[in-house]
Amino acid sequence: MDYVNFFSRQCEIALTEFENDPSDFVISQPLEFLEYQQDCFPWRIEPLRENSEKNAIVIQKPPPSYAPNSESVPELWVRRSYSRYRSAFALFLHKFHSFDLKPIPICWHIDHIEPVSRFQKDHPDYFIRLFLINGHINSCYGGGLEREFYKNEREKTPSGACADWVSILKCIGIEPPSKSIKEHGWAIWAWEQSTNFNGDKFISRIGVYTGILSMLNLYFTGCYNGSYKGLIVPKEIQEELSTYKGAEVFELIWLDE
Q1: Which helix (H) or strand (E) holds 212?
Q2: What is the distance between the alpha carbons of residues 253 and 231, in angstroms, rounded to a whole number?
Q3: Beta strands of 202-243 (E only): which ranges?
Q4: 156 in helix, strand or coil?
Q5: pLDDT digits (tens, 9 = 90+) for 86-127
Q6: Which H or E run contains 211?
Q7: 161-162 and 75-79 strand pairing
Q8: CA distance to 114, 173, 191, per residue, from 166 (Å)
């Protein structure tokens, strides 16, 4: 397996996991919580290196109920303060995916799905799930969406996190929109990106659209629906959107121009 194939496989697993139950896609928790989960569910937690459980762990989960015949795929988690996470991921690829033990090419980033910048020094020392991500894509999120969102979010006491619509799009390598295109542009982008998901898992494609657009508003403005005006539907996508079931379920504002 090479990096491109590994990334493709990682995307496939992430999408399936998110679509079947977003609340199960945990991306950050204290080690004590993860160990508790191990006691409640048939998880297995092991140190990446001998005597390294304080910094890097591998979580092995059984196949999910929606795909009982699938293979178990290990996950690498590191302590948020651990600086050698890139070399840890190289070792993870070597031990669990038969990669040669060598440095990861610089075009690939090893991303904390929940950014380390979300935490302050006095916050609990969380473990965060790592993903292999295209370097350009990761930089786009870190320099825009995430920077906007987490400068306020980090003022809150952490309570664990699951992947959201924005973080899952990052995981599968979708470049984010710019803040400068504003609500109208975000709405068109959200509709375009909604094709990446199985809409039937979220009522319809409209459910995906509202999920993505809600999170974009949250990341860029600090509230789920911008200025509390509801989620807009620009004229350019109204005809296509109206062919999907579920429009009456969501708070949508159909723009005339």
Answers
A1: helix 205-221
A2: 6
A3: 231-233
A4: coil
A5: 999 999 999 999 999 999 999 999 999 999 888 888 888 899
A6: helix 205-221
A7: unpaired
A8: 11, 11, 13
Q: Give the model confidence (pLDDT) of 184-238 as tens digits.
A: 999 999 999 999 998 888 878 888 998 999 898 888 887 754 444 567 888 899 8
How far is the CA of 50 from the CAs of 53, 56, 57, 59, 103, in angstroms?
A: 8, 10, 10, 15, 20
- C-alpha to C-alpha distance for 186 and 212, rounded to whole angstroms: 9
pTM: 0.90
- Helix 205-221 to helix 182-193 angle (10° resolution) is 140
Supply the DSSP symbol for 105: P
Nearest CA-CA partner of 231 in 250, 207, 218 = 250
CA distance 205 to 228: 23
pLDDT tens readout for residues 235-253: 899 888 888 877 776 667 7
CA atoms within 13 Å, Cβ hemisphere of 133: 25
Q: What is the pLDDT of residue 227?
A: 46
Supply 54's token pair.
């304080």
